[in-house]
Design a protein that fits this description.
single chain; 376 residues; mainly beta; 16-stranded antiparallel barrel; 7% helix; 55% strand; globular
């Protein structure tokens, strides 16, 4: 498994690095957010009655987001990612293998005082475990309901009162991307097709997500909640996919930050005197996952993050209950412990280790990551 980041080719980033308008705030202008991760994954597979299988995978994950700003509220948002687009085979020892470039986002982005919308290739604001749970591997484990790279539009409106805090309902309509943007560039790759089947692969924006985010008022600070519903139409049926069904999903999550010494000053944070504890819980139920009739799943993610100055310590467990029609229940899981060291304001060092069970097989996981983030 690999952690999803979001890229502009390095040559374009270098060409734009010297553009003064990226820092002056004048419009129109360019801005770039960049991230480069070097990651090494180790997986040891345990199968009863068979030799222990060790798989290793080292790779770069380079992400860039280009902002072409027309005015303070509107921009063209382009996100790309250079990372492995093929997975390492069991027992393979791989370094920089299977790498390609994907366009992860390409949309018109508007953010006003009370509303936000995107039109184009988008990620859905459905579920928070992918971004809120610590560790290197949870984001992939919950990806069946945390959808991205879709063609459509999303709209959010924000309402605030001193007594109730901020309510931010949003709605999105979308379909699977079968355009040329679904290809992986710089390596042999096929474009997604309608005949591939699967939920959302309908060729028209007849799939919908409705989400309500809530941030508590000052009287109850640092509490955040999300409720969401997703309805995805089935894709085409053919000889390869003779059956299909509409997919439905529900999600709810709670995140709470507990600061032991509230402060916004940098000195106590870097010295380790600032400490906070962040519990997080998310439950998602999916009916006919990926359009497979009767294949129902439920995900429960719980995590705890402890921030102590330059260190962020994390524990995460996700349980996936599978309820196939006419078959016995089964459970898959991913448990990981992680630590991130903020070496500087731009460089992070991360370690993550744990255990996973998927497809009836149990694996030990270990990952090392060095990340450089920044913007100009």
């Amino acid at each position: 498994m690999t952690r999803r980041h979001a890229v502009l080719p390095a040559v374009c980033a270098l060409a734009l690095a010297g553009v003064a308008s990226a820092d002056t705030g004048r419009y129109p202008g360019f801005g770039i957010d960049y991230g480069t991760a070097i990651q090494y994954d180790f997986s040891g597979l345990d199968v009863r009655g068979q030799p222990h299988t060790v798989t290793t995978n080292g790779y770069f994950d380079i992400t860039n987001t280009l902002h072409f700003r027309f005015d303070p509220d509107n921009e063209i948002f382009l996100g790309t990612e250079i990372s492995p687009v093929t997975t390492a085979r069991p027992g393979q020892r791989r370094w920089l293998g299977g790498t390609g470039l994907n366009v992860t986002d390409l949309n018109w982005y508007h953010q006003g005082e009370v509303d936000t919308w995107r039109i184009g290739k988008i990620d859905l604001p459905f579920g928070r475990a992918q971004g809120s749970a610590p560790g290197l591997y949870t984001s992939d484990f919950v990806s069946p309901y945390a959808l991205g790279g879709l063609i459509g539009a999303t709209y959010q409106r924000r309402f605030y009162t001193d007594a109730m805090g901020t309510f931010a309902p949003s709605v999105a309509v979308y379909a699977a991307d079968t355009s040329v943007l679904s290809r992986a560039f710089f390596r042999p790759s096929t474009q997604a097709r309608r005949s591939d089947g699967g939920a959302t692969n309908t060729g028209k924006p007849n799939n919908v997500t409705a989400v309500l985010d809530w941030r508590a008022p000052a009287a109850l600070p640092y509490l955040e909640m999300q409720l969401g519903y997703m309805s995805n139409h089935k894709g085409e049926t053919n000889a390869a996919f003779p059956t299909a069904a509409d997919e439905r999903a529900w999600v709810t999550s709670v995140r709470y930050l507990i600061p032991f010494e509230p402060t916004t000053l940098l000195a106590p944070t870097l010295s380790g005197r600032y400490v906070d504890l962040v519990p997080f819980v998310e439950y998602a139920r999916v009916q006919n996952e990926n359009g497979v009739p009767g294949y129902d799943t439920a995900y429960l993610t719980t995590s705890l993050t402890l921030d102590t100055g330059r260190f962020a310590w994390g524990l995460t467990h996700t349980n996936r209950r599978i309820s196939p029609a006419g078959q016995p229940l089964s459970n898959e899981y991913l448990s990981e412990a992680s630590v991130v060291y903020h070496l500087t304001g731009l460089i992070d060092l991360g370690l993550s280790g744990g255990r996973a069970r998927q497809g009836g097989q149990t694996s030990g996981l270990f990952g090392l990551q060095i990340v450089l983030n920044g913007a100009f």
